[in-house]
Amino acid sequence: MRKRHEPSTLQAALHSRAGLLAIGWSDKKLRTAVKQKTVRRVHHGWYISQPLWDELFWEQQHLAHVMAVVADAEDELGPVVAHESAAVVHALPLYRECPPRVHVLCIGDARSSSTPDVFRHTGPIDASEITEIDGIRCTSLARTVVDVARTAKLETAVACADAALRRVAVTDANDQWAYDEDAANELRREMHAVLDRMPGARGARRARWVIDFADGRAQLPGESVSRLRLVQIGFCVPDVQVRIEGPGDSFYVIDIDAERWWAEFDGNGKYLDRDMRNGASIEQVILAEKKREDWIRARTDRLTVHLADEHVRTVDSCVRRLAEYGIQAPRRRPTPDPGPPAPGC
Asked: How confident is the model at residue 287 (pLDDT cuts 50, 70, 90)?
């Protein structure tokens, strides 16, 4: 089971070749450890425990790579991390991928060639679009989402944009969940302003589509991608996180309103992660889920479609899953066309 660690834990787990040699390691011992897969080379001259690496989520694997590149930089201030690399510094999700290269921006007259594991971008950036998080200089939240929306896979772009809006708009204190639409729209306006300062940028049309489609009420990347898939297939999604009155004073929340039926994204952690089950057994979770679904269907007369990672990997896999419930794709499919990722960025 993958685990999420604090950035400080990852930072402490990274070791330079020079640091390892200083505490008694030899180059031969280091090569042997890498070959035996007890140590992993993250970046030239930087290493981390292989068992720790194996239990990290994709985002944190990439974050460790980012930390190594930043630590190895000759510039005292460190590079400005961008695109998906800035996203992981902001703790935004990357949908089912670990980028092979760290993305950095060359500021001002600084120029340097890319390497097999570092992609160096050139281009203008406003001073307001640079921030610092945990000692790492990176693009601001708005600029990061814009760059990811321009250049990454569409699934990653939507999941990242949703999470950014959620970051600024959702409060969840004392079991009281609230969504600040004004805060979400303010970030949305800021992202559009970033694009306005990038006239002629590749992928701008695609980024505007992602920004307008984004919804911070999505709780998980899988929910974001499920919503995207349904819209790509041609279904209308008028609302998400719909509250339905439950027994007594309780209520249930449905992930996606697809007009005539409901859609729920069920990540494996809902059943396999002990912490997410709050001490309940898998059997108890399944029974509670059945009781919930029976109640919702009785009150709304709507079927609930359950989607998992394997069902939303592609449009076709989602179509096949819906067919299992007897739901056919619309004959006229208003498939959105945000355009492909910008090449060569």
From this structure: confident
